[in-house]
Amino acid sequence: MRVEIWSDIACPWCYVGKARFEKALAAFPHHDAVEVVHRSFELDPGRAEGDVEPVVTMLTRKYGMSPAQAEAGEDNLGRLAAAEGLDYRTRGRDHGSTFAMHRLLHFAKEHGRQDELLQILYRANFAEERSVYSEGAERLVELAAEAGLDTDAARRVLADPTAYADDVRADEREAAQLGATGVPFFVLDRKYGVSGAQPAEVFTQALTQAWGERPPLRLIEQRQDEADACGPDGCAVPRG
Amino acid sequence: MRVEIWSDIACPWCYVGKARFEKALAAFPHHDAVEVVHRSFELDPGRAEGDVEPVVTMLTRKYGMSPAQAEAGEDNLGRLAAAEGLDYRTRGRDHGSTFAMHRLLHFAKEHGRQDELLQILYRANFAEERSVYSEGAERLVELAAEAGLDTDAARRVLADPTAYADDVRADEREAAQLGATGVPFFVLDRKYGVSGAQPAEVFTQALTQAWGERPPLRLIEQRQDEADACGPDGCAVPRG
Lengths: 240, 240
Hints:
Two copies of one chain form a homodimer. Chain A is α+β, with helices and mostly antiparallel strands. The first copy, chain A, has a single domain (2-52, 96-212), classed as Glutaredoxin, CATH 3.40.30. Chain A contains nine helices and nine strands. Chain A has helices at 12-27, 55-63, 67-83, 99-110, 114-126, 137-146, 151-159, 165-177, 200-212, and strands at residues 2-7, 35-40, 53-54, 94-95, 185-188, 192-195, 218-219, 230-231, 234-235. In chain A, strand 8 and strand 9 form a beta hairpin. In chain A, helix 4 (99-110) runs antiparallel to helix 5 (114-126), helix 5 packs across helix 6 (137-146) and helix 6 runs antiparallel to helix 7 (151-159). The longest helix of chain A is centred in the first third of the chain and has 17 residues, at 67-83. The first copy, chain A, starts with a strand and ends in a 5-residue tail after the last strand. At the A-B interface, helix 1, helix 2, helix 3, strand 6 and helix 9 of A face helix 1, helix 2, helix 3, strand 6 and helix 9 of B. Chains A, B: This is DsbA family oxidoreductase. Chains A, B: Residues 3-207 form the DSBA-like thioredoxin domain. Chains A, B: Pfam families: DSBA (PF01323).
């Protein structure tokens, strides 16, 4: 079974939702048979690379919250993150473009390190004092190295704005096709969707339902006689 | 859409079937949205690592063919391979354990090089004079390097017989659960199965059918009110 998770590094509900999903997955009896793939989704796709501002400024400017409302929201998110065992800096975080990080996540996927890098980027964005947006590519190269990726290769990816850009855009198009308007968005075997950082029990229910309803395999066969295949008793003899 | 292909490096129908499938896939209008994953299947799982014999000897000894029958079969396979543009040495090939190669394919998968390595192993096994079985690990290290893998890391994988062994076994268990008794065995979105090296048109039909019948996504939702998610208009405000 395969679970695809659309998310953005800048999305606090994605950070919390990933932990809730992983709690459900760890307790799911068939978790060894579940493959998790992370997909890209930018909440703020129009933002330029170097355009960085404090989260609270962005919330008040863009969504018309008062500073007190914005800070109260951050405090609540901090409590919900703590309930999942996650660190969360409720004051002083930055907001910026996540496009380069999504490109880097696709590079990491090619090297089997996508989940590691995403967790490291979340932690860097939500829990660490250093900004993941304002220190430039070298900060991301450091984080890539932490995820076990080659630093020179990561540096080359970050230096070339077209590297893996199509993969990011393809994920975003697919999210739209699947009807996702926000993140996190979880898709199980392309059959069931779960929207938002639902409680672990909802993920347990979704995993159980999707697992139980896996359809039996339907064989598409060209002819009734033996197919051109090899088995434990030898290979079909070719009709010359 | 995802296509999983169970195969063995020692299986001539897998070599031919991969080329036929790829012909169909290249002409499939949605090929960019198709992900191909290779899965392990050993035709001769009981064979020890160093136990190598000529293919024709194995065919006569194990399946009771006459040498002339075995050679005629190889000649026919050579013609069918040539029809797909593949080289095939009809005389002098070896047979042996493919377990180490399957372990190496799982290592390659982690580094995004699985398809490249499988094609290289097929060519080494079916088309090259040097035996892929009797020269030991260093021959496989060379082939891994050709696929773009790190030679030291490949050497470490091959030196440790437990490395990726569970992944090979898990693929084989899954093949049995899906009802595959021989290879190649193609599974589309875990919904349709195609057994054997069918003509390209059968793969085209299977791809078309599986694509057309992708189910619409069913949303599993916990509650009617807004989920804890972030969208272009901001994030849901947490209920403290």
